[in-house]
Write a structure and sequence with these properties.
With 150 residues, this protein is of the alpha+beta class. It is built from four helices and five strands, in the order E-H-H-E-E-H-H-E-E. It has a five-stranded antiparallel beta sheet, with helices on one face. The longest helix is centred in the first third of the chain and has 22 residues.
């Protein structure tokens, strides 16, 4: 299925850019008039994916994070967050709740679980030494019919 609108941005892997990324994604998707809950869910999932790229992908080192948001027919959306960092050797293990590669830090190991709880699907592709891409998908609820109370 071909996207009907796409937005892409690249930013430095600085923790201060996490809020920028989630706001940019939310701003892009407002054209679909999502519910407040849907917008909050998307923002949270994007925040987790971007934080993972910065904290784990680059281990707080320098790098670039690329966020791509797409809108498809039927109110289906995708968000992809890509880094070119260290990659994930065992994706299945990394997606287990409470697993973290930052045990001395303040990380709880729930990032992928949070993404999965707020999106319809989360796909992770990664190669050690080459980086990781997290692609999240969701179908937004139908718009209310004209004349219905909102």
């Amino acid at each position: 299925m071909k996207a009907i609108n796409t937005m892409s941005l690249t930013f430095d892997s600085l923790e201060v850019n996490e809020s920028f990324a989630r706001s940019a994604a939310a701003g892009f998707f407002t054209q679909l008039d999502p519910t407040v809950e849907e917008l909050c869910d998307i923002r949270t999932a994007v925040s987790e994916a971007v934080t993972n790229a910065i904290v784990h992908g680059y281990r707080r080192g320098a790098g670039k994070v690329r966020l791509t948001a797409r809108i498809y027919p039927g109110r289906k959306i995708t968000v992809a967050v890509r880094d070119s960092g260290c990659g994930i050797a065992d994706i299945e293990k990394a997606m287990e709740p409470l697993y973290t590669t930052d045990p001395e830090g303040e990380r709880s190991g729930l990032g992928f679980s949070v993404m999965q709880s707020f999106m319809d699907a989360v796909r992770v592709s990664s190669a050690p030494g080459k980086g990781t891409t997290v692609t999240m998908q969701r179908t937004l609820s139908p718009l209310p019919e004209r004349g219905e109370a909102e």
